[in-house]
Write a structure and sequence with these properties.
Structural class: alpha+beta
CATH class of the largest domain: Alpha Beta
Number of helices: 6
Strand order of the largest sheet: 6-7-8-10-9
Oligomer: single chain
CATH topology of the largest domain: Nucleotidyltransferase, domain 5
Low-confidence stretches: none
């Protein structure tokens, strides 16, 4: 069943885990639409790891009981992330939701997900140089498996803001929703192409020119 759970705040926009006030269950028939929803009431006593874990387990159960095996939020890391994953949910991060993003999440992660166990290749949570000329590469698809407690922003923004690179090639399942606005506001060029369910994003500085 094509269902995706969206974690929203009081403003009905995607929210970080601790700001979630409601979960919308979207299902695709001809178009994506809300077919179920349930509230997440704020709890003032969320001060211990055990309390956070218990609430995340309840959220996961409520989602799974609605025939959905995933959740999309603005930022879901740490104890909530690990608890939701252990409960059997796929966890995704986005800044804003769109039909295109829902389609990509479903096609790339949910429809063709390999259920067999796989050996995780350890990679650093940051871009690595490919030569001595300022060119870097970052395989986000592998990095997020090794470092699930880190968001894409936490892995990439420290690197992108230091200005000490000529180009950065990113391999990922889908373009991070926050990246387009970041590129525009920081004077970067972005090119992307998609092949076999994988996106390749090339970032360069507008002022950079090869000699």
């Amino acid at each position: 069943m094509e269902r995706i759970a969206l974690a929203v705040g009081s403003d009905k926009k995607l929210a970080g885990y601790y700001a979630i006030r409601e979960v919308f269950i979207y299902e695709k028939q001809k178009e994506w639409s809300i077919v179920d929803r349930f509230p997440i009431l704020p709890e003032p006593n969320m001060v211990t790891a055990a309390a956070v874990r218990e609430k995340a387990e309840k959220v996961a159960k409520d989602i799974l009981d609605r025939n959905c095996n995933n959740i999309v939020g603005k930022e879901i890391i740490g104890i909530p992330y690990h608890t939701l994953c252990r409960a059997g949910l796929e966890v995704f991060e986005a800044d804003n939701i769109s039909n295109q993003l829902l389609d990509e999440i479903y096609a790339d992660f949910l429809m063709i997900k390999d259920k067999r166990p796989e050996e995780i290749e350890m990679v650093p949570p940051a871009p690595i140089p490919t030569d001595d000329e300022g060119n870097y590469f970052f395989d986000f698809t592998k990095a997020i498996k090794c470092h699930p407690e880190l968001s894409s922003k936490k892995m990439l923004i420290p690197f992108l803001t230091n200005d000490l690179f000529f180009s950065l090639l990113i391999r990922c399942e889908h373009v991070m929703p926050w990246l387009d606005e970041f590129v525009k506001s920081h004077g970067l060029n972005m090119e992307s192409k998609r092949e076999n369910g994988v996106s390749h994003i090339l970032l360069t500085h507008k002022s950079c020119k090869k000699q």
